[in-house]
Amino acid sequence: MCIIFFKFDPRPASKNAYRLILAANRDELYNRPTKAADFWGNNDILSGLDLECGKEGGSWLGINRRGKLAAITNYMEGRPNPDAQGRGFLVSNYLMDKEQDSYSYLKKVSTESHLYNGFNLITAEFKAKQDIVCYYGNKGSPEPIRLNPVGIYGLSNCLLDTPWKKLLQGKRQFSSLVSDQTLSCDELVEELLNVLNNQELNTPDPLQESQGDGYTKSMLEALSAVRVQTPHYGTRTNTIILIDGDENVTFTERNMLDCDTSKWNTNSFQFKLQS
Fold this sequence. Notes:
InterPro entries: TANGO2. With about 280 residues, the protein is α+β, with helices and mostly antiparallel strands. Helix content is about 20%, strand content about 35%. The protein has a single domain (about 1-270), classed as 4-Layer Sandwich (Penicillin V Acylase, Chain A), CATH 3.60.60.10. The model has no long low-confidence stretch (mean pLDDT about 95).
């Protein structure tokens, strides 16, 4: 499970305003081997990497210096195919691709979507003349869509903006924050991390529960929070990405250490997009 909130505005009012504000949680088994975010691919791509056997090199969220960004969430389903291809490569492959734009890439992915368990994939391009964000979910429409700019979106483990209670709660808090123009960059990051670490349970939620065939009642309750926490599975990474009107990127990642929900480490990266 995962959750993502984001707002993009291709024409911010000033260079200090943000073209993109994104806040995301990665939920996973605590002991799944993972490399924390860093630059790779000739120092061009910034992301965490999956180190699970057979899925090494996949990712869940990343950005490159040329302004390409991708993020993925799994679609909640009780009995996934254990032989399906690793969904994390859909993120890594897009970030490495130097030919296809965001929509064309998703169009290609849509023709191969049967090879994967359920997923939602966001691909974006932040360039000097135009910002584009696209979405495709292989359990929804057969065609990718281009998202309307100056929008606020939420994505969890159903289709884009499906009104699960946890998504609505987090989106309200996110929307309130991103409308506050008085916050400094550091303050905004800190407040967004607070949104991502809200452990309030949003139960009952018949809409989410109706998709949870194969899940226990206690697990469905745990999954109803923005920050998921169980003894062995839950939110283990928070990520904030900010892109301002002057091409500056701030990427902040907060990671759980040693499978211990009380131990966390935060790293931040700053760089300028290449024109």
